[in-house]
Amino acid sequence: MRDKIVVTRYGEAYVAFALPVIGMPRLISDMHLLHGVLREVPELHEFLRAPEVTQAEKGAFLDKVFAETLAAETRDFVKYLIVKRRIDRLREIADYIRVVYSHGEVVDVVLKSTFPLELGLAERIKSALGLRTGKNVNLYFELDPDLLGGVQVTIGNKIIDGSVRHRLDELKKQLLKTQVV
Predict the structure, then answer these.
(1) Which tens digits make up the pLDDT trace of 13-27?
(2) What pTM, to 2 d.p., does this model score?
(3) 24, 54, 94, 166: most buried, per Cβ within 10 A?
């Protein structure tokens, strides 16, 4: 059970770190490559685990051998696993990421605003939400004049509220908490 938690935490941390920089296709590609190389060349895993080889030597090796095939963020992640002595979990982490993120899951997102958004802005929002969630996004729009301005985004059961109405409600709560002396 503990091993599964470690694999999940490191896998999710890598996705959060690398996704905004290299994007989902490259992230998945790197994990496929790592998983395949570790399966086909078990000596690589033994080398990365070897205590007699310094961390600096392992890092230099990774940068030299994989400079053209793996993103710098992926190489940095492998180096981080070496430092944290979790390199023995690399194949499992790569497998976890491949399985969880390769399916191109789709998420429905509802975006509420007080006015219709321009097509270009809507596309940028959809792209940013896709990067943030790591999934394909079906974006639905609703007009809601009660927001007074700004937008409110609903992803599953999570709400990101950047509306003026929300900010005013928060300000009202703060003012009611404030004591006049």
Answers:
(1) 999 999 899 988 888
(2) 0.56
(3) 94
